[in-house]
Design goal:
By secondary structure, the protein is of the alpha/beta class. The chain is 34% helix and 18% strand.
């Protein structure tokens, strides 16, 4: 691929229309091309069959389409599908299709590697190599939608930004991708079916609220005690719980949408009554619900899933305080596709 050419998907529809009028064609040609790129997911200019050969050649002379490629696909015994996604520059990210009886959920990545340093997450060990562009995020959703239709005979129903990377550290590109995903000129999905999961960047949570986004928010919390959270998520020292709490109160005041806390319980780390009481107190600052997530080991043995007694105590104490709590079993563990396991183990860039 000639990387000196501009990626055509970086152009707005108006910029495409201007390109065609400047080159002696009709403005509506730009609209046609825009539809091919976003609604129809064209990977090559020759796919645009209602355009003349000369028009397609002119675009090829001036632009590239830096589409992703599903480089590898693994299927779990539970039906989960993990994709190794090769980007135009050869780098790899991973995305996951999670099917249930009634839903097909896409778990998509927002960065190559990750900006943060959570000790229990395999992705964080890769460090951040670069942010994904809006079209690279969009393409993951398109690819998973096709897989859902092929293997489960239904379109994609939900999207979670819980793959590789911290979405709020790639804020502008994530928002541009979601705009395309939810636009009638893109995939037309409802923003209510999209969840952006963050480890907690207070300034950006406030910005999301002020930008009046329509999607849902999840926070990877794991402890409501600063010293414990910092020990497993060192960036908490920079973004302490006090600042996170203030940002989440701002979020709820601006959006009226409840917050989901993603929470893993580990043996000897956050499995005591004191930990639960701290979580209950944190949940009271803004309407919220708690997803207790099964832990997925990343080989070093430092973190161990807490026993059923600890999970049951969390559930009973949270429910006693009228806090909605769900115990979420992991999917795709046998192919390293579960939460915290995405690390390109078997891929070389």
């Amino acid at each position: 691929m000639n990387t000196t050419k501009k990626d055509i998907r970086a152009l707005s529809k108006e910029e495409l229309r201007t390109f065609f009028t400047t080159n002696g064609d009709k403005a509506f040609r730009g609209t046609q091309v825009y539809e091919w790129l976003w609604q129809k997911g064209a990977h090559h200019f020759d796919d645009m069959t209602n355009l003349s050969k000369e028009t397609r050649q002119m675009m090829d002379d001036n632009f590239s389409i830096n589409h992703i490629k599903v480089d590898s696909m693994q299927r779990s015994s539970d039906g989960t599908i993990k994709n190794g996604i090769r980007l135009h520059d050869g780098m790899i990210v991973e995305s996951v299709l999670i099917p249930t009886a009634k839903r097909s959920t896409a778990c998509v990545s927002s960065q190559v590697g990750c900006s943060l340093d959570c000790k229990f997450c395999a992705t964080s060990r890769l460090k951040r190599m670069r942010n994904l562009n809006p079209d690279e995020i969009y393409d993951q959703v398109v690819a998973i939608d096709k897989q859902s239709k092929l293997y489960y005979n239904r379109p994609l129903s939900n999207i979670v930004f819980m793959g590789m990377g911290e979405p709020l550290m790639n804020y502008n590109n994530v928002l541009k991708a979601i705009d395309k995903i939810t636009s009638k000129e893109g995939l037309g999905m409802s923003p209510k079916r999209i969840v952006v999961s963050t480890s907690g960047v207070p300034k950006m949570i406030k910005k999301m609220a002020d930008d009046k986004v329509k999607f849902n928010l999840a926070v990877s919390l794991h402890s409501a005690i600063d010293s414990v959270r910092t020990s497993i998520m060192p960036f908490n020292e920079t973004f302490p719980l006090k600042d996170l709490r203030e940002a989440l109160q701002h979020w709820y005041a601006a959006t009226s949408r409840i917050i989901t806390y993603e929470y893993v319980v580990w043996e000897g780390i956050n499995d005591t009554k004191t930990d639960i009481e701290a979580l209950i107190s944190f949940c009271k600052f803004a309407p919220s619900k708690v997803n207790l997530i099964e832990y997925n080991p990343i080989d070093d043995g430092v973190f161990q899933q807490a026993g059923n007694a600890a999970i049951d105590l969390y559930v009973s104490m949270l429910e006693a305080k009228n806090i909605t709590v769900t115990v979420r079993r992991s999917r795709g563990k046998d192919i390293d596709a579960a939460c915290g396991q995405l690390a390109n183990k078997d891929k070389a860039s």
